[in-house]
Design brief:
It is a single chain. The longest helix is centred in the N-terminal third of the chain and has 30 residues, at 74-103. The strands form 2 sheets. This protein has an 8-stranded mixed beta sheet with strand order 4-10-9-8-5-6-7-11, sandwiched between helices. A 3-stranded antiparallel beta sheet has the order 1-3-2. It is α+β, with helices and mostly antiparallel strands and 347 residues long. The chain has helices at 2-14, 27-39, 52-55, 74-103, 124-137, 153-168, 185-193, 236-252, 271-281, 286-293, 297-311, 316-326, and strands at residues 42-43, 59-62, 65-71, 118-122, 141-146, 172-178, 199-204, 211-214, 218-222, 229-233, 254-255. It is globular and about 70 Å long.
Length: 347
């Protein structure tokens, strides 16, 4: 820890007017970058006030004149800067899954003392009842992550009832879905029923397992693959950790009111197809790709077929080579699994 802090302190002393994190852009840098984009180049001398432009690879040396720098296109710069962040998200989600997998089986061993920080909820009726009660008492904010594309009608109806109860108690709602949910009629109907000033919805390529957090004080997660058993978590450290994971995913997600960003400038593929391409290059088979993205295998294969047509691939092997060559699989986001039918659908 001390060894890592030393160079940072020295750097700040060397340039006290430009001391900020290595993942931050200061206002002078943003203004210079905008000027460079408009003019097509930037005098190297101007970097004295914003060296982070070069450190973050937003500009690069002009091959024709050392006194000038040329701006990197924002889309390419963003993809480059997001890569280490998305790797951190992957690691956090893998750690979350590992902790859940290791601790959930031990819940049955523990004494069912209601004062324990983690309580096992068994059975659909009990889980629905507890989520309904928690929604009624929510005062500030309800955060939910709902993997997959489609929620069953009765689950969506129950979620709408819980949402109305939470809003009546003064709480605001934030929902996180996977990108395919944008095309779900059920979600559109649900959003139409909730006042827009009380609800925010975003979508992300991949998400964590189902997660519901009330007022940053209590969280609910599935304890079994069928979601017939859930965990009620009240331990402050665990709830804080799950909230931080949620906020990381939220920051990377796209608001439902906005179109999904283009994945690669000029690439004639959709965001879902680019996600599929990336997972294919990682060696995943069709059913695993579908599960991670929360879509059916049939839909997944339809997208793969469109990818083959777009890239003029003669075979799946040829498609893999063309995906790598085209660069459409370079950007990525977090990790998730597709939900099985179950009962953690309370909000």
């Amino acid at each position: 820890m001390q060894k890592n802090e030393g160079p940072q302190i020295d750097a700040e002393k060397a340039n006290p007017t430009h001391a900020h994190g290595n993942r931050e852009l200061c206002d002078p840098a943003i203004r210079l970058y905008e000027e460079a984009l408009r003019a097509g180049r930037l005098p190297r001398a101007d970097l004295d006030s914003a060296p982070c432009l070069l450190e973050m690879a937003l500009v690069q040396p002009d091959p024709d004149d050392d006194a000038w720098l040329r701006p990197v296109p924002p889309s390419a710069a963003l993809a480059h800067l997001l890569q280490p962040i998305t790797r951190e998200i992957d690691e956090r989600i893998r750690l979350t899954s590992a902790l859940s997998g290791a601790l959930a089986p031990l819940m049955a061993v523990a004494d069912e003392d209601p004062n324990h920080a983690i309580t096992v909820l068994e059975g659909r009726s009990l889980i629905v009842s507890v989520l309904r009660e928690a929604s009624t008492h929510a005062k500030e904010e309800v955060l939910t992550a709902q993997p997959g594309a489609n929620r069953l009608t009765h689950n969506m109806r129950q979620g709408l009832e819980n949402a109305r109860s939470a809003i009546a108690s003064g709480a605001r709602l934030r929902h996180l879905y996977q990108h395919p949910a944008r095309y779900s009629p059920g979600l559109k109907d649900y959003v139409a029923e909730i006042p827009s000033d009380r609800l925010q919805v975003r979508t992300v390529e991949q998400s964590v397992e189902r997660l519901i957090i009330f007022d940053r004080a209590v969280a609910y997660i599935p304890a079994t693959p069928t979601r017939e058993t859930a965990l009620e978590i009240r331990h402050p450290a665990l709830v804080t950790y799950l909230t931080q994971v949620y906020e990381v995913l939220w920051a990377q997600a796209t608001p439902l009111t906005q179109q999904l960003p283009a994945t690669v400038p000029g690439a004639p593929v959709t965001a879902v197809q680019q996600s599929i391409a990336r997972l294919l290059t990682e060696g995943h088979v069709d059913d695993v790709v579908a599960r991670k993205l929360g879509i059916s295998v049939r839909t997944c294969r339809s997208h793969i077929s469109k990818l083959m047509q777009t890239l003029n691939a003669r075979s799946r092997t040829h498609l893999g080579a063309l995906i790598v060559r085209s660069g459409i699989a370079e950007a990525g986001t977090g990790t998730a699994q597709r939900p099985a039918p179950g009962v953690m659908n309370g909000s």
